[in-house]
Automatic annotation (TrEMBL):
Name of the protein: Cytochrome bd-I ubiquinol oxidase subunit 2
Record membrane topology: Multi-pass membrane protein
Regions that span the bilayer: 6-32, 77-98, 119-142, 162-182, 194-218, 224-245, 252-274, 302-325
GO biological process, one term: aerobic electron transport chain
GO MF annotation terms: electron transfer activity; metal ion binding; oxidoreductase activity, acting on diphenols and related substances as donors, oxygen as acceptor
E.C. code: 1.10.3.10
Entry keyword Heme: yes
Taxonomic source organism: Microbacterium azadirachtae
Region forming the signal peptide: none
A GO cellular-component term linked to this record: plasma membrane
Entry keywords, A to Z: Cell membrane, Electron transport, Heme, Iron, Membrane, Metal-binding, Oxidoreductase, Transmembrane, Transmembrane helix, Transport
Compartment(s) of residence: Cell membrane
């Protein structure tokens, strides 16, 4: 495996980490109107991700930086063609982050409700648009011979892109419900399990449609078709397993199965994309591939040594953080704390 191919999969793994970790953050935010019937419940839900949400978001920053350094052509074409969706994602993430920090700054129910609404919007918009973006990356866009995007934002709202977007929205929502059920007690815990049961069927149906359609796309190009089928199968089995485990009250195992679902689903999309990084719908000869979009070998060598040194430290710190905040967020603790806490 050459360095360009290696860095394609490293970028894929960073996005896997981002979608697994920030995925349940999005799900927790989207669950607020279903689980937070009063302020104590809403604070309990939000506090499940309070210590980790900003750490989870750093994965997308690192993924974007690696994409820029290892595949500058891919980065340039992607950010010019997907400018509006990516801008909306950025604004939504800012909105959500501000809301987490400011909702408790004033003891006013209307003040908190406004920021709670922004948390919901700031969670749902990225959950949908990340799926739309990756659906279009896998399917391909209108790239000319200079690798310039010649379509419009409405071209991105195609059936496959929207299906992948709805799938990520529902998967992250279910993933977040599993996390809340794992991390809370009392009425919020029971509501999370109940809502997860209701969300299971539409999530399974949307995910099944995405897997089948992705396999069809992969079959039409020189991608890793066997890997796409295998990863899609594992994603389907783990998703169904997560639903069954949730129904049986095995919250930890249900969440773990949800992690496997998102991990294998993202790898399936990257496998369907390989060896391209951005296919052209105008002419396959215009496509950006791993080889024609990558940086120089020297750049990739320097990045490889940097990643080899830095990544174990990052993973160790994140593991330690989750270990420190591993306990449940109990309703009695929230009730005893002041409203601005």
């Amino acid at each position: 495996m050459d360095l360009a191919t290696l860095w394609f999969w490293i970028v894929a793994l960073f996005f896997v980490g981002y979608f697994v970790l920030d995925g349940f953050d999005f799900g927790v935010g989207m669950s607020l109107p279903f689980l937070g019937r009063d302020d104590v419940s809403r604070r309990q839900v939000i506090n499940t991700i309070g210590p980790v949400w900003d750490l989870n978001e750093t994965w997308v920053i690192v993924a974007g930086a690696c994409l820029f350094a290892s595949f500058p052509e891919w980065y340039a074409s992607l950010f010019s063609g997907f400018y509006l969706p990516l801008l909306l994602i950025l604004l939504a993430l800012i909105l959500r982050g501000v809301s987490f920090e400011y909702r408790h700054q004033k003891d006013d129910p209307r003040w908190r409700r406004r920021f709670d609404t922004m948390i919901i919007i700031g969670s749902a918009v990225p959950a949908l648009l990340w799926g739309v973006a990756f659906g279009n990356i896998v399917q391909g866009v209108a790239l000319d011979e200079r690798h310039i995007f010649r379509g419009t934002v409405f071209d991105l709202l195609n059936p496959y892109g929207l299906l992948v977007g709805v799938t990520t929205l529902l998967l992250f929502f279910l993933h977040g419900l599993y996390f809340v059920a794992l991390k809370t007690d009392g009425v919020v815990h029971e509501r999370a399990r109940r809502v997860a049961r209701l969300a299971a069927l539409p999530t399974v149906l949307a995910a099944a449609g995405t897997v089948v359609w992705t396999i069809v796309i992969a079959a039409g190009r020189l991608s890793l078709l066997g890997a796409v089928i295998a990863l899609g199968g594992v994603a389907a089995v783990s998703l169904i397993a997560s639903v069954v485990l949730s129904l049986r009250g095995r919250d930890g195992w249900a969440f773990a199965a949800g992690v496997v679902t998102i991990l294998t689903a993202v790898l399936m999309l990257f496998s369907a994309l390989f060896p391209n990084v951005l296919p052209s719908m105008i002419d396959p000869a215009n496509s950006l591939t791993i080889q024609n979009a990558s940086s120089t070998p020297l750049t990739l060598q320097i990045m490889s040594w940097t990643a080899l040194i830095a990544m174990p430290l990052v993973l160790a710190y994140q593991t330690w953080t989750y270990w420190v905040f591993r306990k449940r967020v109990r309703r009695s603790t929230i009730e005893a704390a002041p409203a601005h806490a």
